[in-house]
Each structure stands twice: as structure tokens, then as C-alpha cells.
Amino acid sequence: MNSNASPSTNLVVLVIEWLDVVLFTSQVRELVLDNCKANDGKIEGLTDEFVNLEFLSLISVGLFSVSDLPKLPKLKKLELSDNRIFGGLDRLAEELPSLTHLNLSGNKLKDISTLEPLVDLFIMAYAELRTSTPYTEKKLDCLKSLDLFGCEVTNLNDYRESVFKLLPQLSYLDGYDREDQEAPDSDVEVDGVEEAPDSDAEVDGVDKEEEDEEGEDEEEEEDEDGEEEEDDEEEDEDEDEDVEGEDDEDEVSGEEEEFGHDGEVDEDEEDEDEDEDEEEEESGKGEKRKRETDDEGEDD
């Protein structure tokens, strides 16, 4: 793929090789060509090279029939609303054998008989299923959803009963089943082709995730608070133990001081007693000597 640009006019000339086109078209799975006007019943560029195409939208392109649609073997959903199609639906079974969803709203379909070719979609799907191995888990891929809003055929008496009778494999007609129950949102998915979800669903999902995250954060905060409280209690207990230990030490030291002080007092008292005893002994000895001297004087 080569490109040349002219700086003077800002014109970009894109040269595409044939191999590039083939590789590109074979990888496309969804293609929207709404409002691209058809030329003689054909859409330019829409060819059978889109071999893996699963979703095709041709809304309001001016088609009168589907006879010129290319063969698209993997196409599952086809949007053809707001065209001028009045018949020729027999080509759908031949060119689109895997079709499961068909929207023909706002076209020129007047009779139930114009829908009879759609029966072939079921027949071909059933035949393909029978040719597969007996133990296959493959489901019957046939037309399940048909929309005919705005078509004249919807004004017929017993319209819904007639269509369901003609197409017994059909699950939903104009968005409702046989019991007038609306098709669930899950029916929007078409075997790998999924339409964009509703914004409300996205918001709900985001809100739920945010709530889960907030709940986790609150639990973590509660756990942290509990751990902090436990740590504070342990610190308080340690401080109390330290204070009690200091009090015990103070009591012991006080007793020791008192004991030491008493010991010193006792020693001083003992020393004083000894001194008094010595003085008494000396005074006694002096008196004894005095008496002896007096006795000797009397003898003389």
C-alpha cells in the first residue's frame, strides 16, 4: 500500500494493491453501509470477498429486492429496514445460509406468501445439521428473529399467528415471542456479534464495581483501626507494667534506705552505750581507789 501527498493542494492519493483489498475484506466481521444509495439494485464495493462478515446493515439504501446480494456464508444478522423491497426473498436462503436475524421493517411486503422463501432458511440449516457427525454439539442455526414493523403485511388478520405457523422455527416476531413476551437483552448477541450495551447497564456495572471497591476499602480501614487499637492497648499495658515496676523499685529502695538509716542509728547508739559503760567503769575504779586510800589513812 503506497500513498503520495501533494503539499500544495493537501490532496492525498491512496494507491491500494489488489492483495491489500483481499486481505482487508476477508477480515471484516461487521459492515455498516446505511444511506449508501444502491445503483441498479447493487451496492458498490459489497462483494463475496467478505467471507467472514457476520453483521451487515443496509438501512435506507434504496433496494427493491435482495436478488443482487453477494454470497456471504457466515452472515448472521442483516438489517434491510426502510427500503422498497417487495419480494424476491428466495435468494436469502441461497446466499445467506447462516442468517438468524432479519430486519425488513418499513418495506413494501404485503402478503404472507412473500415470506414463504424464508422457510428455506430452516430447511437448509436442518439439512446441514443432519450431514454433520452424530455426536456434534452444533446448534441449529436458522432464522430466529424477524422484524416487519411498518410493512403492510402486519395489517392482515391473524398476522402473527400466520407468520409463526409459516415459520415454526421463529422465536421472535417484531421483538416478541408467541406468548407476547418481549425478547430479552441477551438475544441482542448473535453468536459472537454483540451490540453495544446500554449506557444504564454500563453505569450499573461501574456503580457496582465502585461499591465493591468502597466496601473493600471500608473493611481494610476497619482492620487497620482494629490493629491500631490493639497496638494502643498493648502500649498502655506495657506502660502500666513499667510504672508498677518503678513503684516496686521505689518501695524496695525506700526500705533499703530506711533499713540503712536504722542500722546507722543502731550503731551510733551502741557506740554511745559502750562509752557510758567505760566511763562508769573508770568512775567506779576511781571511787574504789579513793576508798582504799582512805582506808590506808585510817590504819596509819
Task: Please provide a written account of the structure.
This protein has helices at 18-27, 90-95, 119-131, 159-166, 199-299, and strands spanning 2-6, 11-15, 30-32, 55-57, 77-79, 101-103, 145-147, 172-173. With 300 residues, it is of the alpha/beta class. The chain starts with a strand and ends with a helix. Belongs to the ANP32 family.
Give a summary of the structure in a few sentences.
The protein is α/β, with parallel strands linked by helices. It is 46% helix and 9% strand.
List the helices and strands and how they pair.
Blueprint: E1 2-6, E2 11-15, H1 18-27, E3 30-32, E4 55-57, E5 77-79, H2 90-95, E6 101-103, H3 119-131, E7 145-147, H4 159-166, E8 172-173, H5 199-299
Parallel strand pairs: 3-4, 4-5, 5-6, 6-7, 7-8
Antiparallel strand pairs: 1-2
Characteristic terms for this protein:
single chain, 300 residues, alpha/beta, Leucine-rich repeat, LRR (right-handed beta-alpha superhelix), 2 domains, two-stranded antiparallel sheet, 5 helices, 8 strands
